[in-house]
# Entry
Amino acid sequence: VEEPTDAAVIATSLAEPAAFGSIFDRHATVLHRYLVRRLGPDDADGMVGEVFRIAFEKRRSYDLQRPLARPWLYGIATNLVAKHRRREARRIRATARLAAQRLPALDMAEASDNRLDARDRWARIADAVAALPEPERDALILLVWETLSYEHIADALDIPIGTVRSRINRARNRLRELDFPSGGEQGQDADRPALGGSSRDR
Amino acid sequence: VTDDFDPLRQMRPDRIEPDDPGDPAVFTRAKEKFMSAIDQDHHSKTSMTTPDVYPRLAYSDELAAVEYLTRVFQFVENREARMEHDGTYLCWLRLGTGVVMVGHVNTEVHHIHSPREVGLTTVMLNVYVHDIDAHYAHAVSQGADITMELDDAFFGERRYEATDLEGHRWHFGERFDDIRARGGRPPQT
# Structure
């Protein structure tokens, strides 16, 4: 017997609210992990139920053409995260400090003061992500950490797919600027490889 | 795959710190709370309002009290509202349009005690119910300590009283008018 789609479950839950429990069962762990990544475990534990309570209240407006509810739930969770900007910024900066200690220096083979540079680089990425306008950060995190497709990001944030692309592009450009704050005198940058590698210069 | 986002990808918190799969108890509690919220939404839209005056009752075992009051006297707990603080609980129970708050005895802030501790009961809680005879029969079947038998009072109310597990005194009644209005048996007085 095939499992009913999320959309079918949500349709059923209009008359039988308890049916919505299986939406929780199917997606709670993934949404919890998302909240942990962005805000940390303490906030996530308290918020995961809230995501589903809000979803339940909004279920009448769910687009039943979308079989999978997960992007929609990501959108609701993302709205909750937006209320905790400062905590999110603290979280990513703390993560950058850990990254500097634990991750091997990235593309740093040519750099002379390896460790210092690496530490600096993670912190700058964290600062840049924290400083992104919220719509860009949301799209970026859903893409890079949550590995949602552009289409699902569009569903989650309730925006056209072209808008997703432009937000991701703007975020990408801002992250690139980290390495070329002067705006791209390429010749000087031999000892400062692009974020994430060499591909960008070709 | 290496691209512009690779550093951010590597910086995903659970790739740097060991992934915490999440405490299963957290999910169980969250699910329970969620289902209770759904249930309440379904059954009563009006139940979320709180009267302007309502008592806070002190018990030495407040969770046992909640179990007792819901099972014997048919209160309904608003599970959404339950709060834990330093290992003690505050719970909101309702019956009809009324609300009682149930909490632990408190000797530091509120100075409220359980009758069991002080050996005296100082308050009686009055509760109007629908079909007093059925309410009485249910309470008796659940082992209620009946401290005044069911009878018709001269002032126009059929009532009984019971004392709960820690000595709080409850007076349950139904007005003659309400009994007549639901087509119930006419009172004897």
Observations:
- Chain A touches chain B through 48 residues (CB under 8 Å).
- The CA atoms of residues 88 and 172 of chain A lie 20 Å apart.
- The longest helix of chain A spans residues 21-39.
